[in-house]
Amino acid sequence: MKEDFQMSKRHWRSVVALVVLVSLFAACKGGTGGAGAEPELLRVWITWGDNPAQLQELFNRYAEANNVKVEINSPVEDDKVITALSGTEPPDVLVLGGPDNVASWVNEGLVAPLDELAAEYNIDLNDMYPAMLAQGRYQGKLYALPWGSDTYGLYWNKDLFEQAGLDTEKPPETMEELLDYADQLTKVDENGQITQLGFVPDFSWGHMEQYIKLYGSFWFNDDGTKVQLDTPEMAAALRWEQQFYSRYGADEVLRFVSSTGEYDSAQHGFMAGKIAMMVDGEWMVGDNFINGLAPDLWYGVGPIPYPAGHPERKDTNVVGGTVALIPSGVENKDAAAKLLAWMMTPEIVADEMVVNFNLPSSKKASEDQRFYQNEKFGVFIDLASSPNATFQVFTPVSSDLLDELELIEQQVLHQGADPGPLLQAAQAKLQPMVDEVVGK
Amino acid sequence: MEARRMVTPVPRAARRRRWSPQVRRSFIKGILFISPWILGFLFFNLYPMTKSFAMSFAEWHLRIPSEWIGLANYANLLHDRRFWTSLYNTVYMVLFAVPLTVFSAFVFAVLLNLKLRGRSVYRVIYYLPSIVPVVASSMLWMWIFNTNNGILNVFLGYLGIKGPSWLTDPAWSKPALILMGLWGIGNTVIIYLSGIQDVPVSLLEAAEIDGATWLQRLWHITVPMVSSITLFNLIIGVIDMFQYFTQAYIFAAVQAGTTAQQLGSPLDSTLFYSVYLYNRFQTLKLGYAAAMAWILFVIILICSLLLLRASKRWTYYESEGT
């Protein structure tokens, strides 16, 4: 009897252990939930950021003024974002590096529409640059608000211009001139090895969205219902890019480019004076890049050249960048919208984007003198304010289209393929995918 | 084998009758001891597997109702060019990297088994790369592979060879990854080494007395005696290679700079099966990704079974032979 009793006691202990284990699991799940009488907790996830402490400090200003707690999570990986959006406790506000996936997430019902909330919380949409605001719309509704933005321009190395006998203050005006300048700025040694390149169209990554807009078209029509890949404009833009490779041998150009250093280092092709001209964004002039890594570089920035015969397209540039949204699973959308409205006030936009070296989304914020301390940065603000500043239409099929287009660009530029048939094949594959999404 | 017989305490006859209290108690205790694993298996293996199987027959959505579409995901895969590209790239790796890895590991194990001064130092040196995290070693190798300044091409240059653009030339990107993989074969070498040390000395001595050369002893005694280990290494290698992901992911991510991510670059030549599966998952084609996962499961299953079946002709187990 006694033995039996001991046994069942031990047995009972094991059961307790099991219960503890199970409740531990449960506790893990419920840990972040209960807010109750404590100041309300708002969670903000930001997919970028190399300085989480600075972001936390910024949001602490809101927390103190409103008696809430704001918890910043930065940088968050994309995979976590997808899991959180579909889970029961998504972040109250999600800040993304770009609007690329928003349409696809809207299609999955993961993002809350913002039109009514923006009106209710007096978010001044008229103060936002129209092109930046437009990238957050999908099928007529607003889902994401621009916080900061990027745009691209032409960088040219004035030392190399001088060496080649070019006017250092006169960058190429047209895309045809750019080809000519690139020729004059490219050096090949007696062994046929490239030692300096004038211009590489897909350096440091592809810029098809800029070129195709300069050619007067885009791969989606305005409402995102039609794919426009097999157009003369697409083929022309790709053939224009191709020449920068075919003139010097694609293999040699690739070899040369792949031997240049990493993007955020002084060995980077442009900073090291290996590549004379490039297309890059406004952050490049900042402290994390040229200002910090190659402060003595003598260079200029200006608009990307337009096709000769289309001077009306001068200053065309595609803006895109940081957007903020509210996930559909957020229970207290009012608290989230209030925080979002605060984020969009000109002072906050200015404070954050000055630190980030990104363009502010608010016109009022861009009057902040801190943005003009670096005069080259001002060139990009002017570009983003230009009537020719434009944006990309995104659809749920965007990422598939961009994958396909990236491949075509590589085949055309690096392998000398004819863009025509490739674009036709992509068109035939992608239009049905768009039809399916639109048909829903 | 001896030990396994001893842990089975229940006589057959007793099992048919009702369990004695003692047996029942030890059964319950056993279950409790193993319960973390059982729970883990149920929640983190069986449930996700069952669910992913169900998902593969649906256009699966996260927040809006999902739609059953039968075999459409599987049918669509057949027409997906990138699916076939990814399968081709993966099979390429399996066909070239696995035999090469197993062969090199065997050669190194034989060399490291030679009675040399400082043998254990060599063993440590050859094993060291295996404890370097994959992310770190991939970053390191990206420097080695740099077209103009990388140590590999500089070295080839001394030999008068113009090294290829390892990471930007689609013809060389996979060989580069295989080469990098060979650096980390330490684990396979260790397994082989233990097998080689198990080869009965009496056999080797007998052969030596009969006048067999070192090479003959290696080929006729060591190779057959470690054949079961070769089979193990082949199967594990095939399974690992079909799931090849991390290195390709890092190469693509780092090369693309800080903002974009071109999975599979250059020209989809490093778009491996798992990489494409991940890409589909990220673009929320969840049902499609699940279907891909199940096809991969079936492919790996078939390959393993084929290897096992074929191995009957060339593997030797000591326990069967004696």
Characterize the structure shown.
The complex is a heterodimer of chains A (440) and B (322). Chain A is built from 17 helices and 16 strands. Chain A is of the alpha/beta class and 440 residues long. The N and C termini of chain A lie far apart (71 Å). Chain B folds into two domains: 1-34, no CATH class; 75-135 and 178-321, MetI-like (MetI-like fold). In chain B, 70% of the residues lie in helices and 1% in strands. Chain B has 17 helices and two strands. Chain B has a two-stranded antiparallel ribbon with strand order 1-2. In chain B, strand 1 (58-59) and strand 2 form a beta hairpin. In chain B, helix 5 (81-113) crosses helix 10 (186-197), helix 13 (227-242) runs antiparallel to helix 16 (286-311) and helix 15 (273-282) runs antiparallel to helix 16. The longest helix of chain B is centred in the first third of the chain and has 35 residues, at 21-55. The two termini of chain B are 14 Å apart. The relative contact order of chain B is 0.11. At the A-B interface, helix 1, helix 3, helix 11 and helix 16 of A face helix 3 of B.
